[in-house]
User: Fold this.
Amino acid sequence: MGLLIALLGIVALGAVVLTSFLSVIFYGAMLVAAGIFEVVHAFRVRKTGPFLLFLLGGILSLVVGALVLARPGAGLVALTLLMAGYFFASGLFRSITSLADRYTGWGWDFAYGIVSVALGAIIFAQLPYSSLWALGVVVGVEILARGVSLMAGSLAVRGAMRKLHA
Assistant:
């Protein structure tokens, strides 16, 4: 299973534009599904829970999901902008806190923060073109890492089982 998932990650990295668009379509579909479930849940708890909160949250998820599905290009740019902002803000936060606290290994966190800030700035500076590759690369790397992780875990379990039976 890990090998198949790792191969899927390699395929995803080979087709980053397709991976980006499929990710946006999947995200939009999940928002629509979550919105439907939340609206249904709102009516199930209308006498005992925060009906209006669930209803409005569900409607918002439905509308945003439908907009992402109707205009996947705009959704892709929006998700890429969100991702760039996350990389930039988290890297800035990590860099500043590592400098301020100077805990053991702070240099590695500082370097990670600088790389993250740079990545966010690069993605933002290249918008809207970076939206074609950035999300696909992140998803492809995540799938590949998941596959490698599953393979490493299975090898560790196999080694432990051999030691147990020996």
User: Anything to note?
Assistant: The longest helix spans residues 134-165. The chain has one domain: 2-158. The CA atoms of residues 26 and 69 lie 9 Å apart. The chain has six helices and no strands.
